[in-house]
Structure formats: C-alpha cells, structure tokens
C-alpha cells in the first residue's frame, strides 16, 4: 500500500476533487507513523494525530500498488512532469524505500525526486542507483538551536551531509526551509545563500500549524515577512554572493542592496512568488487554504496579484529602512524605544 496526495490522485484521474489547479508532480508517500521527532509533523512520534492521513495540510488517500501501475505509466502523457517519493522514517532503505523506488522507475520515465531522512553518503548512493534523479535532505529550519529542539537532530551534521552529497552529486541535491518556525529572516537568507552557493535546489514552505502536533498553536508567518524571504531567495538563486549587500535590523530584512526600480525589474516575472523547489513541482495548496493567503502560487501570477505583492513588499522595505534610520538617529544612551535612560 502507498499513499498518493489527493491532488495527485485527481491528476491521475483516480479521484475527483474540487480544485482550480492540479499538481504538475505526482506526490507519493510511503509509511504512516514515523519514528522521527519533527514537532510540526502530524506523523511524528510526538504527535497526537498519528492516525490522520495528513502531511502539510494535504490528505493522502491509500492505494494498492496495483491500482497505481497504469496511472503512473501514463503520467507523462497526461502532462505530469515529475514524481516525488516521500517516506517517513521507519525501516531501512533496503526494506522499504528502495523497492518502491525501483517499482516506480520500472513504470515511468519521469524524473523522480526522493525525500527521506538519510545519514550517510552510501544511503544517498543507494537512492541514486535505484533511479532517483534528485535526493532531498530536509533542513526545515536555519537556526541550529531550533533544529535541535524541533527535529531532535544535529544541524551541523545534517548540513555537512547535505554539502558532502552536493559535492559528490553536483546539481542533484535538494533541500527546503520552512519560514515561521522561529528563525530570523537573516538566518533564513544567510542559510539560503550558503545552500544555493553549493548548487543545491532550495524550496521554501510556510509553517502550517496542524492539530495534534506540539506546534499546533504556533502562528504561521505573516504574508509580508514571507514575501521578503521569497524575493530574497529568488535573487540569491541567480547570484548567491548578493547576500553581502542585504541589510538587516535585528534580524529583519530592510534592504536587498538594490534600488526600487532594480528590484521591481528583477521580480517582474512574478516567479519569485511561485512554488520553489525541484523542477516541475508546483505543490498547490500545500500550505494554503483556498481563499486564504497564497504563500506559494502554484501558477503564474495574474497582473493584479503581482502588483499587489510588489506593493506590499516595497512598502515593507521602506518601513524597515525608516526604522533603521530612526534607530541610528536615537540619542546616545537612549533605550530601544528611543527615550533617554535618564528621563
């Protein structure tokens, strides 16, 4: 048995769902209850919702492998561009994921990304030999202390493995970061610059609080903050060294080191605000609800949508610069609020 995202099931004509846009990638999930300790995940061992069929805010109905053989073999003809195989932390790769990956590659010529927790170069090599064209090692948070608390793992060891894999398999490694776990914008963008500088594909998610998880009551990021991160990562994908021109005030981005005209030109396609990650991946409504804030647009933005996003982004940068100027102009010996300690 294997799980298929509801949107993928609709794209493969296995399920009828109401949706204004369908995924361009087939998302498969192997396993249910995970031995991992990620505090934001409903499948993790600390979650009270382990029996639910959610990952992100997406439902994952179960299918027998036999039910998927014909749809997967025809996925490319139906316009799908990629298969993404995700797995919970359960048995060894040899017992669980590798047989499934070989089965997928026997059925389909589509490129296949694999996202699973690995701990060695040898495990990555096993995945590539079995047919993966990309392997994802999730970082999730850019803050080492948060990483240890939220994922119960070592940030330094995980990053070192990701970078070693990127050196061994150039252009074939992926990772993602989640905005809203408690890191600063400076930490996220600095990590993004380092990751992109290693030719690692980087996807961005918005933190989604889910019932039953230890982080269920932590709020998601606000849209303005998310837009600043999206735009920053978009710029860094083209020029990682541009990070040296970014400016921050107490961890909050205030400038990309570009004029408003330069920034608008570089963001004029709207691609910065669409889903990022592996080629051919659009992840519709993975961290959004229909009619609510659209963090990652799964399609090209309409002219009015792009105009609105650019407006709030530029306004937030101007506000940040003004706060920075006021802070610099505060009298010597003043408190952070601008009042003298002697008043």
Tag the structure with descriptive keywords.
343 residues, alpha/beta, TIM Barrel, 2 domains, eight-stranded mixed β-sheet, two-stranded antiparallel sheet, 14% strand, disordered C terminus
Task: Give a brief description.
With 343 residues, the protein is α/β, with parallel strands linked by helices. The protein folds into two domains: 1-135, Aldolase class I (TIM Barrel, Alpha-Beta Barrel), CATH 3.20.20; 137-328, no CATH class. 35% of the residues lie in helices and 14% in strands.
Task: Please describe what this structure looks like.
This protein is of the alpha/beta class. It has two domains: 1-135, Aldolase class I (TIM Barrel); 137-328, no CATH class. It is built from ten helices and twelve strands. The strands form three sheets. It has an eight-stranded mixed β-sheet. Strand 3 and strand 4 (58-59) form a beta hairpin. Helix 7 runs parallel beside helix 8 (223-238). The radius of gyration is 21 Å and the shape is globular.
**How many runs of DSSP E, i.e. beta strands?**
12
User: The biggest beta sheet, please?
Assistant: 8 strands, mixed
Instruction: Give the low-confidence spans.
Output: 330-343
Report the structural category.
Answer: alpha/beta
- Going across the major beta sheet, what is the strand order? 5-1-2-6-7-8-9-10
Fraction in helix: 25-40%
């Amino acid at each position: 048995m294997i799980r298929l995202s509801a949107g993928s099931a609709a794209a493969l004509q296995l399920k009828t769902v109401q949706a204004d846009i369908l995924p361009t990638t087939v998302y498969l999930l192997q396993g249910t209850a995970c031995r991992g300790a990620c505090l934001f995940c409903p499948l993790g061992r600390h979650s009270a919702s382990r029996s639910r069929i959610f990952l992100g805010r997406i439902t994952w109905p179960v299918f027998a492998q036999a039910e998927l053989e014909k749809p997967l073999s025809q996925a490319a003809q139906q316009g799908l561009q990629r298969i993404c195989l995700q797995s919970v932390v359960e048995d060894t790769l040899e017992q669980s994921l590798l047989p499934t990956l070989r089965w997928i590659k026997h059925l389909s010529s589509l490129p296949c990304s694999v996202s699973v927790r690995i701990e060695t170069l040898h495990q990555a090599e096993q995945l590539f030999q079995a047919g993966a064209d990309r392997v994802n090692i999730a970082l999730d948070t850019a803050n080492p202390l948060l990483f240890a608390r939220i994922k119960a793992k070592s940030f330094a060891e995980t990053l070192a493995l990701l970078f070693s894999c990127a050196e061994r398999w150039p252009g074939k490694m992926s990772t993602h970061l989640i905005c809203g776990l408690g890191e600063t914008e400076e930490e996220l963008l600095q990590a993004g610059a380092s990751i992109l500088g290693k030719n690692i594909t980087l996807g961005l998610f918005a933190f989604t609080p889910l019932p039953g998880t230890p982080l269920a009551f932590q709020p998601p990021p606000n849209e303005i903050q998310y837009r600043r991160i999206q735009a920053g990562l978009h710029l860094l994908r083209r020029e990682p060294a541009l990070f040296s021109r970014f400016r921050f005030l107490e961890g909050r981005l205030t400038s990309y080191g570009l004029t408003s005209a330069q920034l608008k030109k570089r963001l004029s396609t709207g691609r910065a605000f669409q889903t990022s990650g592996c080629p051919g991946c659009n992840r519709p409504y993975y961290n959004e609800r229909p009619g609510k804030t659209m963090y990652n647009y799964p399609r090209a933005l309409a002219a009015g949508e792009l105009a609105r996003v650019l407006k709030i982004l530029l306004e937030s940068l101007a506000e940040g610069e003004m706060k920075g100027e006021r802070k610099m102009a505060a009298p010597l010996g003043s408190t952070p609020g601008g009042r003298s300690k002697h008043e």
